[in-house]
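Summary for the steering committee. The consortium agreed at its last meeting that each partner would contribute one worked example illustrating the joint modelling workflow. Our contribution is presented below. We chose a case with several input lines so that the handling of multiple components could be demonstrated. No manual editing was applied between input and output; the record is shown as generated.
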Amino acid sequence: QKEVEQDPGPLSVPEGAIVSLNCTYSNSAFQYFMWYRQYSRKGPELLMYTYSSGNKEDGRFTAQVDKSSKYISLFIRDSQPSDSATYLCAMSVITQGGSEKLVFGKGTKLTVNP
Amino acid sequence: KAGVTQTPRYLIKTRGQQVTLSCSPISGHRSVSWYQQTPGQGLQFLFEYFSETQRNKGNFPGRFSGRQFSNSRSEMNVSTLELGDSALYLCASSLEGLAGGLPDTQYFGPGTRLTVL
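What follows is the complete predicted structure of the assembly.
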Protein backbone atom coordinates (compact mmCIF):
# COMPACT_ATOMS: atom_id res chain seq x y z
CA GLN A 1 0.00 0.00 0.00
CA LYS A 2 1.36 3.39 -0.98
CA GLU A 3 1.74 5.96 1.79
CA VAL A 4 -0.55 8.41 -0.01
CA GLU A 5 -3.39 7.45 -2.35
CA GLN A 6 -5.12 9.92 -4.63
CA ASP A 7 -7.66 9.22 -7.36
CA PRO A 8 -6.07 10.47 -10.60
CA GLY A 9 -9.43 11.24 -12.21
CA PRO A 10 -9.82 12.90 -14.60
CA LEU A 11 -12.60 14.95 -13.10
CA SER A 12 -14.75 17.15 -15.31
CA VAL A 13 -17.31 19.58 -13.86
CA PRO A 14 -19.37 22.52 -15.13
CA GLU A 15 -18.47 26.04 -14.10
CA GLY A 16 -19.91 26.96 -10.72
CA ALA A 17 -19.91 23.39 -9.38
CA ILE A 18 -18.50 22.41 -6.01
CA VAL A 19 -15.44 20.22 -6.47
CA SER A 20 -14.26 17.66 -3.94
CA LEU A 21 -10.75 16.25 -4.17
CA ASN A 22 -9.56 13.58 -1.76
CA CYS A 23 -6.52 11.70 -0.53
CA THR A 24 -6.07 8.88 1.93
CA TYR A 25 -2.88 8.03 3.74
CA SER A 26 -1.49 5.22 5.82
CA ASN A 27 1.34 6.81 7.81
CA SER A 28 0.18 8.16 11.15
CA ALA A 29 3.43 10.11 11.45
CA PHE A 30 2.43 12.64 8.80
CA GLN A 31 2.39 16.09 10.37
CA TYR A 32 1.37 18.63 7.77
CA PHE A 33 -1.11 18.22 4.98
CA MET A 34 -0.84 20.32 1.88
CA TRP A 35 -2.54 20.88 -1.43
CA TYR A 36 -0.62 21.94 -4.50
CA ARG A 37 -2.01 23.05 -7.85
CA GLN A 38 -0.11 22.35 -11.06
CA TYR A 39 -1.03 23.95 -14.35
CA SER A 40 0.05 22.33 -17.58
CA ARG A 41 3.78 22.83 -18.29
CA LYS A 42 4.30 24.48 -14.90
CA GLY A 43 5.66 23.41 -11.56
CA PRO A 44 3.31 22.81 -8.61
CA GLU A 45 2.37 25.78 -6.42
CA LEU A 46 1.23 25.56 -2.82
CA LEU A 47 -2.46 26.32 -2.31
CA MET A 48 -3.01 25.55 1.34
CA TYR A 49 -1.61 23.64 4.26
CA THR A 50 -3.01 22.48 7.58
CA TYR A 51 -1.74 20.37 10.44
CA SER A 52 -4.74 19.53 12.59
CA SER A 53 -8.03 17.78 12.05
CA GLY A 54 -10.80 20.10 10.97
CA ASN A 55 -11.41 22.65 8.26
CA LYS A 56 -9.36 25.56 6.97
CA GLU A 57 -10.80 28.08 4.55
CA ASP A 58 -9.09 30.37 2.08
CA GLY A 59 -11.46 32.12 -0.27
CA ARG A 60 -13.19 29.54 -2.44
CA PHE A 61 -10.94 26.76 -1.14
CA THR A 62 -11.49 24.65 1.98
CA ALA A 63 -9.02 22.05 3.19
CA GLN A 64 -10.33 19.36 5.48
CA VAL A 65 -8.34 16.82 7.50
CA ASP A 66 -9.69 13.82 9.36
CA LYS A 67 -6.76 12.21 11.14
CA SER A 68 -8.85 9.45 12.67
CA SER A 69 -9.84 8.24 9.20
CA LYS A 70 -6.51 9.25 7.60
CA TYR A 71 -8.39 11.21 4.99
CA ILE A 72 -7.93 14.71 3.61
CA SER A 73 -10.06 16.71 1.21
CA LEU A 74 -9.94 19.92 -0.78
CA PHE A 75 -13.22 21.59 -1.67
CA ILE A 76 -13.47 24.24 -4.36
CA ARG A 77 -16.63 26.35 -4.33
CA ASP A 78 -17.97 28.16 -7.38
CA SER A 79 -15.37 26.49 -9.57
CA GLN A 80 -13.99 28.50 -12.48
CA PRO A 81 -12.37 27.45 -15.77
CA SER A 82 -9.15 28.93 -14.38
CA ASP A 83 -9.24 26.21 -11.69
CA SER A 84 -8.57 23.61 -14.39
CA ALA A 85 -5.30 22.01 -13.32
CA THR A 86 -3.87 18.97 -11.60
CA TYR A 87 -4.25 19.04 -7.83
CA LEU A 88 -1.72 17.19 -5.71
CA CYS A 89 -2.01 16.41 -2.05
CA ALA A 90 1.23 16.29 -0.09
CA MET A 91 2.12 15.28 3.44
CA SER A 92 5.22 15.89 5.47
CA VAL A 93 6.95 13.44 7.74
CA ILE A 94 10.01 13.64 9.96
CA THR A 95 12.67 11.24 8.72
CA GLN A 96 14.94 9.10 10.90
CA GLY A 97 17.62 11.71 10.40
CA GLY A 98 15.43 14.34 12.01
CA SER A 99 14.66 16.33 8.90
CA GLU A 100 11.39 16.53 7.08
CA LYS A 101 10.35 15.25 3.67
CA LEU A 102 7.24 15.59 1.55
CA VAL A 103 5.27 12.66 0.15
CA PHE A 104 2.94 13.50 -2.72
CA GLY A 105 -0.18 11.91 -4.10
CA LYS A 106 -0.22 11.24 -7.83
CA GLY A 107 -2.54 14.16 -8.48
CA THR A 108 -6.11 14.57 -9.74
CA LYS A 109 -6.63 16.28 -13.09
CA LEU A 110 -9.57 18.69 -12.91
CA THR A 111 -11.30 20.35 -15.85
CA VAL A 112 -13.92 23.03 -15.25
CA ASN A 113 -16.05 23.55 -18.34
CA PRO A 114 -17.49 27.01 -19.10
CA LYS B 1 11.67 38.54 -7.19
CA ALA B 2 12.60 36.04 -9.88
CA GLY B 3 11.23 32.53 -9.44
CA VAL B 4 13.03 29.22 -9.57
CA THR B 5 14.63 28.64 -12.93
CA GLN B 6 15.62 25.35 -14.43
CA THR B 7 17.74 24.65 -17.48
CA PRO B 8 17.37 23.20 -19.95
CA ARG B 9 13.59 22.98 -20.26
CA TYR B 10 13.68 20.04 -22.63
CA LEU B 11 16.30 17.37 -23.20
CA ILE B 12 16.51 14.27 -25.36
CA LYS B 13 19.13 11.66 -24.61
CA THR B 14 19.79 8.04 -25.49
CA ARG B 15 20.19 5.08 -23.18
CA GLY B 16 23.55 4.86 -21.50
CA GLN B 17 24.29 8.56 -21.72
CA GLN B 18 24.49 10.86 -18.73
CA VAL B 19 22.75 14.16 -18.16
CA THR B 20 23.16 17.19 -15.90
CA LEU B 21 20.22 19.41 -15.00
CA SER B 22 20.57 22.82 -13.41
CA CYS B 23 18.43 24.72 -10.92
CA SER B 24 18.73 28.32 -9.74
CA PRO B 25 16.69 28.91 -6.57
CA ILE B 26 14.92 32.08 -5.54
CA SER B 27 17.39 34.62 -4.21
CA GLY B 28 17.93 34.06 -0.47
CA HIS B 29 16.65 30.49 -0.48
CA ARG B 30 19.17 28.04 0.90
CA SER B 31 17.34 24.75 0.40
CA VAL B 32 16.92 23.03 -2.94
CA SER B 33 14.95 19.82 -3.40
CA TRP B 34 14.69 17.69 -6.52
CA TYR B 35 11.72 15.60 -7.59
CA GLN B 36 10.92 13.23 -10.43
CA GLN B 37 7.40 13.37 -11.84
CA THR B 38 5.96 10.62 -14.04
CA PRO B 39 2.35 9.73 -14.92
CA GLY B 40 2.73 6.31 -13.31
CA GLN B 41 4.49 7.20 -10.06
CA GLY B 42 3.56 10.84 -9.61
CA LEU B 43 5.92 13.21 -7.84
CA GLN B 44 8.74 11.42 -6.08
CA PHE B 45 11.38 13.00 -3.87
CA LEU B 46 14.97 12.57 -5.04
CA PHE B 47 17.07 14.60 -2.59
CA GLU B 48 17.41 17.87 -0.75
CA TYR B 49 20.44 20.08 -0.41
CA PHE B 50 20.95 22.74 2.22
CA SER B 51 24.09 24.85 2.53
CA GLU B 52 25.93 22.62 0.04
CA THR B 53 25.16 19.43 2.00
CA GLN B 54 22.75 16.69 1.10
CA ARG B 55 20.32 16.65 4.00
CA ASN B 56 17.70 14.22 2.76
CA LYS B 57 17.55 11.47 0.17
CA GLY B 58 14.74 9.54 -1.46
CA ASN B 59 14.71 5.96 -2.67
CA PHE B 60 16.49 6.30 -5.96
CA PRO B 61 19.54 4.39 -7.22
CA GLY B 62 23.02 5.82 -6.99
CA ARG B 63 22.88 6.81 -10.67
CA PHE B 64 21.02 9.87 -9.44
CA SER B 65 23.24 12.37 -7.72
CA GLY B 66 23.34 16.05 -7.06
CA ARG B 67 25.26 18.88 -5.59
CA GLN B 68 24.78 22.41 -4.41
CA PHE B 69 27.13 25.32 -4.84
CA SER B 70 27.94 28.12 -2.43
CA ASN B 71 25.44 30.41 -4.19
CA SER B 72 22.72 27.78 -3.57
CA ARG B 73 22.46 26.85 -7.23
CA SER B 74 22.10 23.12 -7.63
CA GLU B 75 22.77 20.52 -10.26
CA MET B 76 21.39 17.04 -10.63
CA ASN B 77 23.18 14.32 -12.56
CA VAL B 78 21.84 11.06 -13.88
CA SER B 79 24.39 8.59 -15.22
CA THR B 80 23.83 5.58 -17.47
CA LEU B 81 20.37 6.71 -18.50
CA GLU B 82 17.56 4.17 -18.76
CA LEU B 83 14.27 4.43 -20.65
CA GLY B 84 12.46 4.62 -17.31
CA ASP B 85 14.30 7.83 -16.44
CA SER B 86 12.11 9.71 -18.90
CA ALA B 87 10.24 12.17 -16.70
CA LEU B 88 9.72 15.75 -15.67
CA TYR B 89 12.42 16.71 -13.18
CA LEU B 90 11.34 19.45 -10.83
CA CYS B 91 13.44 21.57 -8.56
CA ALA B 92 11.98 23.39 -5.57
CA SER B 93 13.58 25.98 -3.34
CA SER B 94 12.70 27.26 0.10
CA LEU B 95 14.23 29.46 2.78
CA GLU B 96 15.18 26.87 5.35
CA GLY B 97 14.03 23.67 3.76
CA LEU B 98 12.55 20.51 5.16
CA ALA B 99 13.78 20.79 8.75
CA GLY B 100 10.76 20.58 10.99
CA GLY B 101 8.64 23.27 12.54
CA LEU B 102 6.04 24.97 10.40
CA PRO B 103 6.18 23.83 6.80
CA ASP B 104 8.60 25.92 4.83
CA THR B 105 6.86 26.73 1.55
CA GLN B 106 8.56 25.14 -1.42
CA TYR B 107 8.53 27.06 -4.68
CA PHE B 108 8.81 24.90 -7.74
CA GLY B 109 10.47 25.65 -11.03
CA PRO B 110 8.86 24.76 -14.37
CA GLY B 111 10.86 21.55 -14.63
CA THR B 112 13.13 19.90 -17.18
CA ARG B 113 11.39 17.41 -19.45
CA LEU B 114 13.87 14.56 -20.05
CA THR B 115 13.18 12.02 -22.77
CA VAL B 116 15.40 8.95 -22.99
CA LEU B 117 15.33 7.10 -26.33
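The mean pLDDT of chain B is 91. The two ends of chain B are 37 Å apart (CA to CA).
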